[in-house]
Known about the structure:
By secondary structure, the chain is α/β, with parallel strands linked by helices. Helices cover 36% and strands 23% of the residues. It is built from eleven helices and 19 strands.
Amino acid sequence: xxxxxxxxxxxxxxxxxxxxxxxxxxxxxxxxxxxxxxxxxxxxxxxxxxxxxxxxxxxxxxxxxxxxxxxxxxxxxxxxxxxxxxxxxxxxxxxxxxxxxxxxxxxxxxxxxxxxxxxxxxxxxxxxxxxxxxxxxxxxxxxxxxxxxxxxxxxxxxxxxxxxxxxxxxxxxxxxxxxxxxxxxxxxxxxxxxxxxxxxxxxxxxxxxxxxxxxxxxxxxxxxxxxxxxxxxxxxxxxxxxxxxxxxxxxxxxxxxxxxxxxxxxxxxxxxxxxxxxxxxxxxxxxxxxxxxxxxxxxxxxxxxxxxxxxxxxxxxxxxxxxxxxxxxxxxxxxxxxxxxxxxxxxxxxxxxxxxxxxxxxxxxxxxxxxxxxxxxxxxxxxxxxxxxxxxxxxxxxxxxxxxxxxxxxxxxxxxxxxxxxxxxxxxxxxxxxxxxxxxxxxxxxxxxxxxxxxxxxxxxxxxx
Length: 465
Ligand SMILES: [Zn+2]
């Protein structure tokens, strides 16, 4: 009898250790879910990104999409990456969406990375680049109505991605594609005569691969590139080269969801450009770079997620005086007149012109061994280069994320002036260029947030040397 009891005890002991092993194995993986929603406008509304294009959309070349990748680590910590075929996301819309994600799903700002592809064949959104478009009352209504639908769809797609979560393995790696051209240091008009191109550049193609833990089936591929999505400027909706790249990847891997995130392409153009053929060519180039990475060995990421986020104040330089604005207004045409008039109206009302941007978003994620940084605005390539000096060359650096309020020039580009350093501030409705402290302020915040989630940071003084 005693022997039987001991025997049963041993069986029970070994059973429970098997159970424990199974539980531990289940808990030691990522979980991930992905979802997609079509955001192509139904109504003929204005296309975003060019002051010169005054007619609304006439049709579509590709659909426009918003996509969500939800991830959960072994301890239940969660985050969502949202990608979208939009020019940018104004703060008011982004805040409403992110507030809703907090309310409905408990996702805080630090857990949400909301990227826009910067396609110039997407819809105009309310209160974005206000002075460059000549918007009539019909368009105003259509744009407002579209925005309400868009916000609802993006919140819903995150919910669907959360519900779809399944045990997963996640991998990362950088590939390479070289169609970005530094548009400040190379002239588009005479490009074919140039025998060499001038930088700076960052040709990285960051890739995240998500596979089902049970059968290694590909679920999602999220990838980025630093380059303006400005091959096309027609009146047909399209995701530009990034849209074609996603189509190519989804064709090559049936059942997968391909998601594009814009990196730091504010001073990079796809050159030459302006034909559908070229948009497809760059799309195929980018998808080929992603496919190469997927087919080679990638780094598997430990199922540990950390997220950090802040909003910082970025100073603007001294605003123009009333006399400056009157002079500008009388000497200019088009959107510059609208900008100067709006600034003068503000002064007339006795209100001060804006002296800073109060809530510039900076975000750092750590997915296992992979650091991922996101910045708001149209971020120039030197931020990618300098963030990689701080956090390592394999870091993923996204721009155009969470809020797109202006160009974000490096100190060098700010001092050189030009469109990215100075005049684009008018396009975005800001009174003056950024203060020279901009680059240092942002990089210091990236370093501080990275240290906060235990990403090793190299000394700040190594930047810009
Ligand atoms: Zn741009």
